[in-house]
Design goal:
Distance between the termini: 64 Å
Oligomer: single chain
Radius of gyration: 22 Å
Helix content: 55-70%
Number of helices: 4
Shape: elongated
Number of strands: 2
């Protein structure tokens, strides 16, 4: 074992002892599940980003200045920006979550 590998192993062992956790997992089933979970989380965040961008890019479509954001706008942004085909339910859930964050001030939507 060369000096760099020995140093890395020593630091990893010390960190594991200090935190009480394993630093990496060597079992294939756990790695596979983690990869699937990471993929699902990544997709969820992309859909939320598409909803954010649809809200931010909305222009007032009415005379009183109220911006209108449709679920179809979120679906279009997800497909254009991330090449994702998103169901209406997924896009609607993401839009609802983001509108709740923004308190729906000055924004109209086609959600019930």
């Amino acid at each position: 074992m060369d000096q760099a590998t020995g140093w890395t192993a020593t630091v990893a062992a010390a960190a594991a002892v200090a935190t009480g956790r394993r630093l990496w997992v060597n079992r294939p089933a756990e790695r596979a599940r983690s990869a699937a979970e990471r993929g699902a989380e990544h997709r969820r965040r992309q859909i939320l980003n598409a909803a954010d961008w649809a809200i931010s890019g909305a222009v007032p479509r009415r005379e009183d200045g109220i911006r209108t954001v449709l679920v179809a706008d979120v679906q279009a942004r997800a497909e254009a920006d991330f090449d994702l085909r998103v169901s209406r339910a997924e896009a609607g859930a993401a839009l609802w979550q983001r509108l709740e964050l923004r308190l729906r001030i000055g924004i109209e939507t086609d959600l019930p």
